[in-house]
Design brief:
Blueprint lengths: L19 E8 L11 E8 L9 E4 L4 E4 L8 E6 L1
Antiparallel strand pairs: 1-2, 2-5, 3-4
Length: about 80
């Protein structure tokens, strides 16, 4: 048997599981005529357990191309566009 003293160290590597989720909503959800402005809200969320560096939200419908900076695990960022 091995005795572990208070000065012994044990290193266990963490399992890194990156993940990302994107939701998109529109307001208003209906329109009457050409030229009505629809605002889109895009929310990106870090669903993993590692920090995401500089994720970029792109949307060809609205021409959004926004870098949202660093997202810590569980953190979200919002982009609003037309």
């Amino acid at each position: 048997d091995r005795v572990v003293s208070s000065t012994d160290r044990l290193e266990i590597p963490a399992i890194q599981t990156p993940g990302i989720a994107l939701t998109k909503t529109a307001s208003p959800t209906t329109y009457d005529q050409a030229g009505d402005v629809i605002t889109y809200t895009l929310i990106v969320t870090n669903t993993g357990n590692v920090t995401l560096s500089n994720p970029t939200i792109t949307d060809p419908l609205t021409n959004a191309n926004d870098n949202v900076g660093t997202l810590l695990p569980g953190q979200s960022a919002t982009v609003t566009t037309h």
